[in-house]
């Protein structure tokens, strides 16, 4: 299936990735760039980002939302490829939870480079994340918690409207369905909050929601930090990015659509503190916003994975898959890397992006990176350019234009 590549020291390596979105393709691309390897992708369907790809082999299960089916297929793959070193990756919160909860079954056959179940439960919950940050003197928006399913009364909200409401755990919210569902809600009044609580109860939601103060500023105030903590507890990779534009569809709100990499030691120091003090292992991706009122970094959450837009790290010259392989396959103590190279990462057309970057200095930086051809789109890979893939990438760019016209036609002061 795969041949040992240069740098693998004779170890037959096989990447196996759960999921089928753009972030999964980015992981497969990073493995291919680093080692020339084809990744096995396990999902319920071969969705557009991974379809018709020469660097992906598909393992389709009947129900991609059934943890048991996914784990059973992973065990079948392991039995079939018993002579290969299998590295397991997942890139959504609920799939990370599936892997971590079935670690005892999977770890005899796979490298499982994820944090412990106890820590996953703590940091995946935005309410608990805020508590940890408070203890570590890391600034977060003021946070209130509403609990569902146990008869708890509505939380008393003493925050100024508008405010933000979102699920404390995205994995708990994954399969909840109701009219008007969004990833993140901007709540303008007490009546809107009352409606949301009723809709969640009506949908049978039994988790927790957080209500937070709204930190002002448009998408360009957002930042992203990606890190890798090796099996010894050393933080061997740090990369920060300045977000320029986020997605604005109800299901994708808050996912970066464009950003450029840069080094920000003050922000990275806070991420380091969180990772070190919590005993973190594996990849982490922090969502941060610069508060324009104070200039302070406000940490929103940490994703227990590398993140949907992970290719910005590879594009900046620090392929994250090398850190995993060197750590878990080669057993190497890697010299820590803090990325400094500036690269523009965008999944939207550059002309569209520049419509939303109103700050002249930022716009000049973007144009400079475009002129220098220091740009990256995760799906545009010259070694994976079949006509059907090229058609899909073009259609995806056109669709981005349509989505922004519909959901975010003009820049707002809050990004909503």
TrEMBL record:
InterPro entries: ATP-grasp, CPAse_ATP-bd. SUPFAM superfamilies: Glutathione synthetase ATP-binding domain-like (SSF56059). It comes from the Bacteria. Keywords: ATP-binding, Nucleotide-binding. GO terms for molecular function: ATP binding; metal ion binding. PROSITE patterns: ATP_GRASP. Gene3D superfamilies: ATP-grasp fold, B domain. Residues 130-329 form the ATP-grasp domain. Pfam families: CPSase_L_D2. The keyword RNA-binding does not apply. This is ATP-grasp domain-containing protein. It comes from Cellulomonas rhizosphaerae. The lineage of its organism: Bacteria, Bacillati, Actinomycetota, Actinomycetes, Micrococcales.
């Amino acid at each position: 299936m795969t041949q040992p590549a240069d740098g693998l020291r004779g170890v037959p390596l096989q990447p196996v990735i759960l999921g089928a979105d753009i972030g999964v393709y980015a992981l497969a691309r990073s493995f291919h760039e680093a080692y020339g390897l084809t990744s096995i992708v396990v999902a319920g369907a071969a969705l557009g980002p991974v379809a018709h790809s020469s660097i992906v082999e598909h393992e389709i299960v009947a129900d991609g939302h059934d943890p048991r089916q996914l784990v059973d297929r992973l065990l079948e793959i392991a039995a079939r490829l018993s002579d290969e070193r299998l590295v397991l990756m997942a890139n959504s919160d609920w799939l990370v939870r599936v892997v971590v909860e079935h670690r005892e079954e999977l770890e005899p056959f796979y490298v499982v480079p994820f944090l412990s179940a106890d820590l996953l439960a703590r940091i995946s919950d935005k309410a608990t994340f805020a508590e940890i940050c408070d203890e570590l003197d890391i600034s977060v928006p003021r946070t209130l918690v509403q609990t569902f399913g146990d008869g708890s009364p509505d939380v008393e909200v003493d925050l100024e409207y508008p405010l933000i409401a979102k699920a404390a755990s995205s994995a708990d919210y994954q399969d909840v369905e109701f009219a008007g569902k969004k990833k993140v809600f901007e709540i303008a009044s007490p009546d809107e909050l009352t409606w949301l609580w009723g809709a969640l109860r009506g949908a049978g939601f039994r988790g927790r929601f957080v209500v937070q103060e709204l930190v002002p500023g448009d998408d360009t105030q957002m930042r992203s930090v990606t890190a890798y903590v090796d099996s010894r507890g050393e933080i061997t990779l740090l990369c920060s990015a300045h977000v320029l534009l986020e997605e604005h569809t109800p299901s994708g709100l808050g996912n970066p659509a464009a950003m450029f990499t840069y080094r920000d030691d003050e922000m990275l120091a806070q991420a380091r503190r969180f990772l070190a003090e919590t005993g973190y292992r594996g990849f982490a991706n922090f969502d941060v916003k610069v508060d324009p009122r104070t200039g302070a970094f406000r940490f929103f959450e940490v994703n227990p994975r590398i993140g949907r837009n992970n290719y910005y790290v590879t594009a900046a010259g620090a392929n994250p898959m090398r850190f995993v392989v060197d750590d878990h396959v080669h057993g190497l103590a890697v010299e820590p890397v803090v990325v400094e190279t500036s690269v523009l990462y965008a999944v939207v057309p550059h002309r569209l992006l520049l419509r939303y970057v109103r700050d002249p200095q930022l716009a000049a930086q973007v144009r400079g990176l475009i002129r220098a051809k220091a740009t990256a789109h995760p799906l545009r890979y010259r070694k994976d350019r079949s006509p059907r893939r090229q058609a899909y990438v073009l259609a995806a760019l056109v669709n981005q234009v349509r989505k922004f016209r519909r959901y975010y036609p003009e820049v707002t002061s809050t990004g909503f």
